[in-house]
Input
Amino acid sequence: MNSNFLIELDNVDRRFASPEGKIIQVLDSFSMTVKPGEFCAVVGPTGCGKSTTLSLISGLAKANAGKVLIEGKEFNGIDPRVGYVFQTDAVFPWKNVLDNISVGPLFRGINKKEATEKAFDWIKRVGLQGFEYHYPHQLSGGMRKRVALAQTFINSPDILLMDEPFSALDVQTKILMQQELLQLWSKHKAAVVFVTHDIEEAVILADKVFVLSKRPARVKKIYNIDIQRPRIVSEARYTQKFIEISKSIWNDLSEEVNI
Amino acid sequence: MNDKIIMNRKSEITKLEQASIKKVKEHWRIVIFYRFMFLTATLSSWEILGRIGVIDQFFFSIPSKIIYQICIWIIKGTSQGPLWLQVLVTLEETVLGFLIGAVMGIVSGIALGRNKMLADIFSIYIKIANAIPRIVLGSIFIIALGLGMASKVALAVVMVFFVVFGNAFQGVREADVNLIANAKVLGANDSQITFKVVLPSALSWILASLHISFGFALVGAVVGEFLGSKQGIGLLIATAQGAFNAAGVFAAMIVLAVVALLADYLITRLENRLLKWRPNIQ
Ligand SMILES: Nc1ncnc2c1ncn2[C@@H]1O[C@H](COP(=O)(O)OP(=O)(O)OP(=O)(O)O)[C@@H](O)[C@H]1O
Ligand SMILES: [Mg+2]
Output
């Protein structure tokens, strides 16, 4: 096995049984690899199995067949190097912003004082100052998303799984958060698997874009995005290269949806 | 110029605010007035109908006699000793039974809810146990545990346990899988998931059951006393019944109602404290 890869999915199958016992094959001999520090985006038609792929990498779900390898090794349970920003709202409604963000370090046995300090730092970084003691129901959707991001980033994961993290944000905030994400990533160099419906977002952020086919998903095409870094999110979208790649991915995807 | 417009706007809003506060106050004044009117009307028609003989005083008593009975109990004490002692005895049995039943219910509800196999095996028996009129067990407890406090506490425990258990179980089963998944990835181990994620999710279910089950505990204790005891409000009712003293039964009922309302108030306070994260508690 080539252990150059941090994440490797090797001919993975994942099935679900419907309540009546009918089998839905979501992933069928699905393979994909991610190198350390690589920023990968995943696009594909809705329901094709993107979230399923992330939950396999995270260890929350198990493959029915095939191998999921982290650093060339199969693992049991959840790897502590993984961080996962979920597609659905998953902040704890009974904890205020501060407690929501410090919960990861506390789970991992760091003392309360240190965890709180770290959390205050992250509150600043995601721009939630003044809302430390608000409960999630008192925040807007975008603010809750930022709590979720801080909650994940505070553990400084080496493998960062993100499932449409910015889809609920307005365009300006989205661009700000994308820029912030690139900055964080360039500092920490985590391997990122970033699921999105937004083709432009995928191209702007990623080194590599995986285009998936409709269900059962396989990797239809891989684009290497050689737009130079550091990228300015608000400007990169007007370059010729960006427009070309986006168009091409657009065509790939419409083939999948129209059939 | 602009400042002036803003100032005007502000004073306008203050005026509107004052008007709306006044309206709300007015509303509550009217509500309280009619509540009082309703009570007075009910009690006085009961009194009048009783006195002119439309309602048989012998069976249904009249408010003035009931109030008189309560006053007698407070001033001279009951045939079994002072009133406060009877209240205390019943309250002690109730609270003890409530606490034991609630803790047992919460612990076993969570334990069973977290384990799918156990849940599937035992859920059918829980349904059956819930359908049985458990109050009948009181007779068995009196036989087994005697006339003292133990039999009443046991009955209260049985009354409380299944309600709290059922709710805790349901609450655990309905805990959001996304939140559990998130906690797992953030690094929580099994016990952290149980205590830091599942328990708080189930808390609103559990607290709702505490509301109802305190009343159940009180019923359990009183019925236990009724079936056989040396002290307590249940015995007071049994004695009044034996003497064909309808006023005594009603008076005991009012004393019980006061106890139950006080307990409900305290549990609501606790609930609001523990669930302050919840949107719009009224
Ligand atoms: N727990 C489950 N039980 C049964 N079927 C499931 C389950 N989870 C997912 N599926 C099915 O698997 C397929 C893929 O789901 P998945 O959530 O991975 O899609 P997705 O690509 O993330 O879609 P979207 O872009 O809409 O989020 C869907 O058709 C869905 O119906
Ligand atoms: Mg999805």
Observations:
- Residues 2-52 of chain B form the longest helix (51 residues).
- Chain B has a mean pLDDT of 89.
- The pocket of adenosine-5'-triphosphate (ligand 1) is lined by residues A 16, 24, 26, 44, 46-52, 87, 215 (CB under 6 Å).
- Chain B has two domains: 2-55, 65-274.
